[in-house]
Amino acid sequence: MSKPKQQSLFEEEELPENPMPWERESAQDLYLAEIVLNRPVDRVFHYKVPEELRPLLRAGHRVQVPFGRGNQFAPGYCVGVGPGDENLPSVRLKTVEAILDSRPLFNAKMLKLTRWIADRYLCSWGQVLDCVVPAGVKNQAGTRMVTVFEVGTADAADEAQQNDLIEKLPAKQRAVYDALKSAARPLTLEELTQVAGCGSGPVNSLKKKALISSHQKRMQHFENDDDIVHAHIQKQDDLKLNRDQRLALDQILTAIRGQQSETFVLHGVTGSGKTEVYIQAIREVVSYGQQAIVLVPEISLTPQAIQRFRSRFDSVAVLHSHLTDSDRHYHWQNIAAGKVQVIVGARSAVFAPAPHLGLIIIDEEHETSFKQETAPRYHAREVARKRSELERVPLILGSATPTLNSWLRVIEKKDTLISMPRRVNDLPMPGVNIVDVRNDVQIRRNESIGRVLFTGMQHALGAGGQVILFLNLRGYSPALWCKGCGNSVKCPHCEISLTWHRDKNLAVCHSCDFSARPPTNCPGCGAPGLRFVGAGTQRLEEEVKAKFPGYSCQRMDSDTMRGVGSHARVLNAFADGEVDILLGTQMIAKGLDFPNVTLVGVVDADTMLHQPDLFASERTFQLIAQVAGRTGRGMQGGRVFVQSSSPTEPAIVKAAEHDFLGFARLELGHRKEMLAPPFSHYARVILRGPQEEHVEHFARQLAEILSVAANEKQLQVQILGPAPAPIIRLKKYFRYHFQLAAIDVEQILQLWHEVEGKLPREKGIEYIIDVDPVNMR
């Protein structure tokens, strides 16, 4: 594969053809910094480093530089620094203006990792580096400039005079002086007056006498205090492992002790005790003074999961979307200083600046949320694999339903399989009943809970058990349907049906957040009497409360869980038995461990199955298997009812049988016949613009350029499309897409680098490329 453009661009203007001697910079006198910026152009710029910054500037620092002909300042990242060379062109270089951070934000390994991401996901190095650093770190959130005081230094000739002054100090001034002299660090005015028990007057008097001095310093005032958080959590001992857990742990510990970058696919059924294996592997790492990164899906960052780690380790940083910038900055500094033993977080935690990394874990590795949907469009699993290689530490990919990508690597002996086929305490897997609802009277009456599921819920609740109901559609009704023309009411900005939210009486687009009062007449044909079709979680909640009035019910979806701490309140109430029925979307499908749950109902197993998506069967299998795993974790056992209008679909049947191996064998066979992922790689090019015909024409133009280049360079890359995107109109823009397909991803990357600088631009039309996409809408 050819490397992306990294030629030096020397700011600013080129000198005349024959510059005067004093106009040419001498290479011997130059000290240059290689700078990348958060721009969609993958180039390294060179700047002069002024004399005063040379001892301070290092690769990994964030800097401020003039950029463009207007000399506007822009933040950039230093990726290299050193003397100039003799091949320097005749240019007048611009100068680094300032270093923005006291220490480098990236070490050499992280610079290598981010360079690899830029190459692998076809974006600029500067975009990757800017993505890695949280906004709170860039704007130094939680800090401020304050005045601090310390004892002044006197010349030897004045020592006797100063001692005489000190001896004659009034009591309050002497108290201030003694407090500063005994302090381990400079003190702020507030700290000093508090320790000395006085006001600001004695401090000012001492400063006039030159016995103390002051200067400006940046101080930290963070909102988060982990010592307080951990103080309220009771520490717990490690649990005794069963045979499967012990065998799994022994394999991982061998790699940890050998400092090997081996990747383990930990395939353990739901309830097999994977988390305890993670914790005891981390225990080993921490005993060496090292750190561990644990990636989980955002929706799995439940208080229950967080407390499990904090009850075992002294210092745990939890990184999630609800953190303030100040909290993120606080955690970043503690992690970088080596003060944090375990970093638990969602996708971006893979970049945590752990200086003593010993282990990386990705739990629920099959989750699509590990793929970033905006530039840089990286996949955390692949980034973790590369970081594991660079840091020489093991990587664990845990799941009851691994991705077929990971499973194929196991089959090809690229990764090591660890199996945990039994539940802890040999509890049986729950029985799963597929309920054919095509002829169900209650379903025909437009109800969500069929006869079989209703009866099962009655028995479970009557016996004192709890129930979880899963429906992956929020709102009240997912469609407003006109019986006159047979069409649904769509968003005016997107080609998506509006969902009715009854509590607010709004028709809402779940893509662009457009909302309006539901129309009384069809916008298309004008016919009156629109019908609300289908059921979402709001309607399911209403039905449950009507059918089971004597039981407490709570709903968990993105509409109800917006407040800080809302997840914790509902889950704690469920754990304490205050809630009998918990219903919601996929946020309740994983990570929950409640022994009293004796029934799980999948209200509609077909919602994902018939999507125009290559991965629809795989995701349906994963979702049903994960939801089913929420029950049968106690001695009472558990049952699962899966309502479906497609009861013979292999994904549903295999999930009901808890047969991952059978499903993987079947689905991989289909994919191999089609040469579809994971037997090949795709890169999806998506174009959007305000006029459909222009977008279509430009898509065909780009696809043709890439096709011609692939033939000229003899690259085995197939161009599929272009065609309208499954959602052709989104947020007011028309969308077309095409795919680059190849057995070897390097062929796709090489093709894109060959043509990237030659691709035309069309006013008003934007395009992006997504390597190994997981979202095909």
UniProtKB/TrEMBL annotation:
GO MF assignments: 3'-5' DNA helicase activity; ATP binding; ATP hydrolysis activity; DNA binding; zinc ion binding
Keyword DNA-binding: yes
Binding site for Zn(2+) 1: C482, C485, C522, C525
Protein name: Replication restart protein PriA
Coiled-coil residues: none
Family of this protein: Belongs to the helicase family. PriA subfamily.
Binding-site list for Zn(2+) 2: C491, C494, C509, C512
Top-level taxonomic group: Bacteria
Membrane spanning stretches: none
Domain Helicase ATP-binding positions: 255-420
Organism expressing this protein natively: Gimesia algae
Cofactor(s) the protein needs: Zn(2+)
One Pfam family, short name: DEAD
